[in-house]
Amino acid sequence: MNRRRLLALMVKEVLQIRRDLSSLYIAFVLPLVLLLLIGYGVSLDAKDIRLAVVLEQPTPKATSLVAAFRNSTFFTVTELRQRQLAEAGMVAGRYRGVVLLGNDFDALVGRGQQAAIQVLLDGTDANTARLTKGYVEGVWTKWLGHEARAAGQSLTLPISAETRVWFNPALESRHFLIPGLIAIIMTLTGTILTALVVAREWERGTMEALIATPVGRLELLVGKLAPYFVLGMGGMALSVLVGLVVYDVPLRGSVWVLALSSSLYMVAALSMGLLISTIARNQFVAGQVAIVAAFMPAFMLSGFVFEPSSMPLWVDLLSRVVAARYFVTILQTLFLAGDVWSVVWPNCLALTAIAAFFLALTWKRTRKSLE
């Protein structure tokens, strides 16, 4: 590998980036826009759940329980008098859940007997239904404790559970999603950086002129990857900064470990994009293949939203060849838990193997000919 030719290739790529700013848009503007849109738009938290409370006969204790639901930050409460109106509203989609309090609620509670509360849930969104059920039970338990203290008694439960949440005490889903989202976005931008740019050279005929020079295959690969690696790492740094500043996601791990793992992943993404461009040689086709072959598997199979272990076995096995699965695990660990080496190193080794695989394929497909 001739260093002068390699340097000339890198300078040529830098000049091309300066003349055609699309690479800068892909590296910096696209991650910023996607982080802001998806970061604020995607959340696993359920807030302001529309809840109808049917109070057939207003009584002091029943009214007190309704007030407890109103004071909860999770619910937007509508008080009704008839069950039929609540059921019709849930069918129409106006309510996510219905709580029914019977006429004998006060009498049963006053005598210390079990007072039944019926809860109807909209199961079309299973995740929201489960959260609503848990929130209703939480409000009910808290209200029972308040009533017991007001009566000078202690609330006795058969089991007392003391819960402590590690790594994400506030249970903010955004703290879990943003690190994974950074990995997904860098998959898209890293792959497109080389897929579209190199395919554009094939369309414009500049690649043929480059092939006619004495440049070797290794010089060509390194000269293409190095400038876009710097761009990709710059976009990665910007994405991490947005996660820390805008979304207030903690970074408990080492910056150097983050830089190392990000470098391995960026090499894998850029190599995959370069491989796509050598096969497609057309910008439109390269873009479509990049989305289907890189972005969609990273989004669906990386653990960003869906836990791979909960998938069917064959899907779980398929996800193990997706580089984003290992990078998402590394980022979530570094951001929320810290430098957990038993997690970081095996996933870094997997990223190294995947990056080497794509580099080898790209090397094999890159020929000094037009065929």
UniProtKB/TrEMBL annotation:
Alphabetical list of Pfam families matching this protein: ABC2_membrane_3
Domain ABC transmembrane type-2 residue range list: 133-369
InterPro entries per UniProt: ABC-2_transporter_component, ABC2_TM, ABC2_TM_bact-type
Membrane topology qualifier: Multi-pass membrane protein
Primary localisation category: membrane
Cellular localization per UniProt: Cell membrane
Segments traversing the membrane: 21-42, 176-199, 225-247, 253-277, 284-306, 343-363
Keywords: Cell membrane, Membrane, Transmembrane, Transmembrane helix, Transport
Family per similarity comment: Belongs to the ABC-2 integral membrane protein family.
Name assigned to this protein: ABC transporter permease
Organism expressing this protein natively: Magnetospirillum sulfuroxidans
